[in-house]
């Protein structure tokens, strides 16, 4: 049955007919399935840092995806206008269009993954080319999450090229798009890159603290309790470094600033102490990293294990002791010394610092 839109647009009718012809062949299903399997293989290789294998899988998968649609690929992209209404209208045109749109989604994901692998190898021009195509497809499909990933990866690429202004603009756009799409994990991955960007600049202490608080909110919205605590630890250490630097320059410390640092580190200490006492380990990640595709795994800290928790517990207790030693006249009450010391002997040899 012809839809109203088909009847008004002969080009769309011609496109649907061509797609139906393609999908009637045996090669269609085979190519589509192989491309999806190769994407899964590439993601697995990415997780184990086998960059060359990622690129091999992606190259083959892109070839299969493009081959699925042939000359109709550009016609299908031209029929899309970047709105969800248009995507839904096309999907209502029948299974042929729906299947073709699935192929485009797969291609965008493959190219995003390929771009990340190229960046890992320092092949920035190749990464830029893949990202441009991935972002075009994602924008046409009105896929906010995949578009946000592309923006984040482009921001990372600009950071590698020392283009800080463009990197910040792209990363802020990624953050806003993730918030609109209610994707806190992807939002966190972009915020981590913004923290890295500003953390390398002088005189951006307040801005970095603001970004850490945005990151905390993203993790809280995503229900990532471990990521919240690890962010408190990093924020507390960041503040402590500033206090130590100020002290070395003879700057008088404000009680309110020291108290905030104490609260951040104390929150991390409470969490890690509970986990240590209960003997917990966790596979929970921290809300995505700076360059990973499906899970933002490029900069993520990955799984958490008992030994690593012990090392982190050692670091946070040592940080609190440093903080409390800065200036006793501010009356920051430290945890009992024996409470701090009882955890330090649990740190495994060779794991005195977290990654």
From TrEMBL:
It comes from Hemiselmis tepida. This is Uncharacterized protein. Residues 288-301 have a biased composition (Gly residues). SUPFAM superfamilies: TPR-like. Residues 278-303 are annotated as: Disordered. Gene3D superfamilies: Tetratricopeptide repeat domain (1.25.40.10).
């Amino acid at each position: 049955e012809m839809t109203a839109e088909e009847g008004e647009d002969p080009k769309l009718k011609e496109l649907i007919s061509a797609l139906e012809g393609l999908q009637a062949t045996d090669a269609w299903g085979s190519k589509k399935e192989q491309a999806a399997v190769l994407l899964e293989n590439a993601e697995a290789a990415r997780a184990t840092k086998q960059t060359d294998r990622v690129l091999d899988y992606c190259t083959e998968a892109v070839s299969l995806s493009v081959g699925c649609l042939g000359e109709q690929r550009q016609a299908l992209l031209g029929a899309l206008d970047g709105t969800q209404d248009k995507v839904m209208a096309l999907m209502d045109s029948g299974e042929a269009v729906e299947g073709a749109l699935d192929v485009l989604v797969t291609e965008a994901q493959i190219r995003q993954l390929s771009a990340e692998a190229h960046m890992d190898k320092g092949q920035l021009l190749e990464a830029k080319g893949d990202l441009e195509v991935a972002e075009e497809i994602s924008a046409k499909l009105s896929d906010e999450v995949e578009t946000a990933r592309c923006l984040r990866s482009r921001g990372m690429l600009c950071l590698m090229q020392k283009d800080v202004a463009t990197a910040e603009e792209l990363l802020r756009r990624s953050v806003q798009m993730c918030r609109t799409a209610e994707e806190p994990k992807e939002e966190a991955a972009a915020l981590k890159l913004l923290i890295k960007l500003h953390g390398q600049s002088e005189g951006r202490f307040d801005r970095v603290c603001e970004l850490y608080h945005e990151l905390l909110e993203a993790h809280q919205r995503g229900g990532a309790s471990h990521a919240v605590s690890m962010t408190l630890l990093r924020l507390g250490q960041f503040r402590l470094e500033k206090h130590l630097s100020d002290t070395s320059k003879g700057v008088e410390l404000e009680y309110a600033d020291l108290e905030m640092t104490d609260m951040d580190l104390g929150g991390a200490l409470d969490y890690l102490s509970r986990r240590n006492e209960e003997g917990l380990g966790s596979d929970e990640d921290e809300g995505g990293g700076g360059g990973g595709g499906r899970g933002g795994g490029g900069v993520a800290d990955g799984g958490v294990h008992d030994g690593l928790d012990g090392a982190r517990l050692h670091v946070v207790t040592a940080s609190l002791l440093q903080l409390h030693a800065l200036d006793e006249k501010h009356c920051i009450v430290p945890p009992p010394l024996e409470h701090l010391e009882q955890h330090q002997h649990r740190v495994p040899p060779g794991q005195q610092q977290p990654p």
